[in-house]
Amino acid sequence: MSQAFASHETINLPPQTVWARLTDWSAAPHWMPRVSALHSEGALAVGSQLQFTARGKERVSEITELAPGSSITLTSRVGKTRADYRYSLTPLGGGSTGLDLVATVKSDGVMRLLGPVIRKAIAREDSVQLSNFKRSVEGAPAGPE
C-alpha cells in the first residue's frame, strides 16, 4: 500500500489514558476532521465495525488490527479504494505517550490512476488528527479543522 501521511504527537498523559480517549468513539468528532458522529455497537475487537458520518454521508470503518492498549488499525473501503489508519502508542516515561498515525491508501482498477490524488486529499484533510486529538485530550482550545 502507499502511504498518504504519517504524523506523531507526544501526549502529556499516560498510555492507558491515551488509549481510553483514543477508543472513545463518541469523542472522535472533536478530533477527526469532517466527522460529525462515530459509534460502535460491538466490543473493541478485530472485525468490529464503526459507523460514522463524514461530510453528511454514512460510512463504515472496520477494526482490522488490534493490540489493546498499544495499536489499532481502522480500515475504510469506498469502491475500489481501501484506506488504513494505524494508530500506535509508545510509553515515553514521565507520564507521557508517543502517539503515531500512519495512513495508507490502495486503489485498484481504474481508481489506481487516481491514487496519488486520493492520497494527497487524505493527507491534506486528516494529517491534523493527532494535533486535534492532543488539544482535545489535554484540554487546550481546538484549532481550525
Based on helices, strands and strand pairing, what is the structural class?
alpha+beta
First-to-last CA distance? 26 Å
Q: Give the fraction of residues assigned to helices.
A: 10-25%
The whole-angstrom Rg is 15 Å
Largest sheet: 7 strands, antiparallel
Tally the beta strands: 7
Number of helical elements: 3
Give the strand line-up of the largest sheet.
1-7-6-5-4-3-2
Overall geometric form: globular
SSE series: EHEEEEEEHH
The overall pLDDT average reads 88
Contiguous low-pLDDT stretches (5 residues minimum) are 141-145
Top keywords for this entry?
single chain; 145 residues; alpha+beta; seven-stranded antiparallel sheet; 3 helices; 21% helix; disordered C terminus
Textual characterization of the structure:
With 145 residues, the chain is of the alpha+beta class. The protein is 21% helix and 46% strand. A seven-stranded antiparallel β-sheet has the order 1-7-6-5-4-3-2. A hairpin with a 3-residue loop joins β4 and β5. The C terminus is likely disordered.
Break the fold down into its secondary structure elements and pairings.
Elements lengths: L1 E10 L3 H8 L12 E6 L8 E6 L2 E11 L3 E8 L2 E13 L2 E12 L7 H12 L2 H10 L7
Antiparallel strand pairs: 1-7, 2-3, 3-4, 4-5, 5-6, 6-7
Describe this structure in a few short sentences.
The protein is α+β, with helices and mostly antiparallel strands. It has three helices and seven strands; from the N terminus they run E-H-E-E-E-E-E-E-H-H. It starts with a strand and ends in a 7-residue tail after the last helix.
